[in-house]
UniProtKB/TrEMBL annotation:
Keyword rRNA processing in record: no
Listed transmembrane segments: 168-186
Organism: Polytomella parva
MF-aspect GO terms: thioredoxin-disulfide reductase (NADPH) activity
Keywords (A to Z) from UniProt: Membrane, Transmembrane, Transmembrane helix
Protein name per Swiss-Prot or TrEMBL: Thioredoxin domain-containing protein
UniProt-listed InterPro entries: Thioredoxin-like_fold (IPR012336), Thioredoxin-like_sf (IPR036249), Thioredoxin_domain (IPR013766), TryX_NRX_thioredoxin_dom (IPR045870)
One matching Pfam family: Thioredoxin_8
Keyword Heme attributed: no
Gene Ontology terms describing biological process: negative regulation of protein ubiquitination; negative regulation of Wnt signaling pathway
Listed SUPFAM superfamilies: Thioredoxin-like (SSF52833)
Organism phylogeny: Eukaryota, Viridiplantae, Chlorophyta, core chlorophytes, Chlorophyceae
Amino acid sequence: MTSASSSSAMREILGDDFVMKNSRGSTEKGSQFHLAGKHVAIYFSAHWCPPCRQFTPMLRRTYQRMKEDGKAFEVIFVSSDKDERQFNEYYSEMPWMAIPFDDTSRRQSLARRFNVSGIPALVLLSPTGEVLNTNARADVASDPHGDRFPWIGGSQSSLANGLSMQKVAILTAIAWVVFAIIIPYLQRHGYLTNDEVA
């Protein structure tokens, strides 16, 4: 894919105008130009959400380390804050880009596009706009220095396959029942041998 077509793919997904911080920490207008050739993590979060406020400092440290290491990585904050005052207060803690708060339709469209059902959520895109990981939050937690970046596979959860957290919990419970109760029962009654289970 050429840089023009990858830029076009990113533009189609994310739009073209952003809020960003300059070197003095002031807010200014950003564009697709600042995303060229970079992996982009879309960060769905809100000031009112305690797990978000716990995860944001962790993501900020990872982001700063990766920038220091010269990794082509950017984060875009998609706010679920209740008002612009909350957005501004929360965004003041972030060094990365953001979708403008007043662009409600784009913020909602991104949440729908990536099936975001809870926050915080972190979706990782390749420089060409390909979805690499819909649960990059787990990777930031397990790889805070970004040693395994770009986090393809690894701790990528089954959310990437379109499963919600509730479905993952149900499937985990079913697997536990099968392995802890049903298989031992079948073995005790001679229906299964250890060789068949392995």
